[in-house]
Structure prediction request, 178 residues.
Amino acid sequence: MESLGSRQVYANPWMTVREDEIRRADGTTGIYGVVDKPDFALIIPLDGERVRLVEQFRYPIGLRRWEFPQGTAPDRAAADPFALAVRELREETGLRAGRMTELGLIDVAPGMSSQRGRVFLATELTEGFHEREHEEQDMRSAWFPRADFEAMIAKGEITDAQSIAAYTLLLLHEHSQP
Prediction:
């Protein structure tokens, strides 16, 4: 596919939407809509056999959802993934990690968005006070046994694709350890 041109059709502090004119391999032309969002960091806080989740209202689906702490830098800025992970963990949960291990990369919705995420495992945790942004004022945070977390996925109570994909990266990481 070849890009013939691009125009921004919408922008706010969190994302832009663009429409690209494209030429396909067979020579036909068309358009492709793309949502551009900055890359994010997702953190799996793990303390023994329990994980820390955050819950907040997700406006586009009209539901409160439990998920791993995750986020982007303000104003669509690019940020170092490790520094972003440290900040998001502290901001959303109050936790500080003595150790952060990068587990991998996930693409959110590659058919429509350029956004990618780095997944980190946070261990050797200490509690502190959260520093949530204004948009996160309704957020809650709690520890869950891993068995409960897995059951919540199976029952459709946790449906955040990034959290489920990140947990898969954690399982693969654990299976690769001697």
